[in-house]
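--- STAGE predict ---
source: upstream dedup step, 1 unique chain passed
mode: sequence only
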Amino acid sequence: MRTASTGVIKAEGFTAQLERRAGAVVVAMQGNADMAVHERLKAFLDDVDLTVRSTRAKEAVFELEQLYFMNSSCLSLLLRFINTVVGAPSSQQYIIRFKSNPKLRWQQKSLDALRAYAEELVFID
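--- STAGE serialize ---
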């Protein structure tokens, strides 16, 4: 069984940090998510799911206001994350909320596609 990591990715041009806040697990991402962080992001998102489940949080909140770019490979990791939640028993499912930056057009299109995949669990603010 995997154990949770430190909940932080720090790479040149990209950071992601996990923290627990009042019934939610909050993930703040900044910079550019590309192939340089793909494998680390994959493990990090697995840890986010593990943390949400182990703390019985009601939602995972992704703060993406300062995420300027995410390539399709990293975006597919978010879909993989959502799919994990969708595939879990209903008692283990939780809300996934994306806080977006309306000035970044790619976010609206990409996040709308993720929401369409699981409208009952994915919300965009």
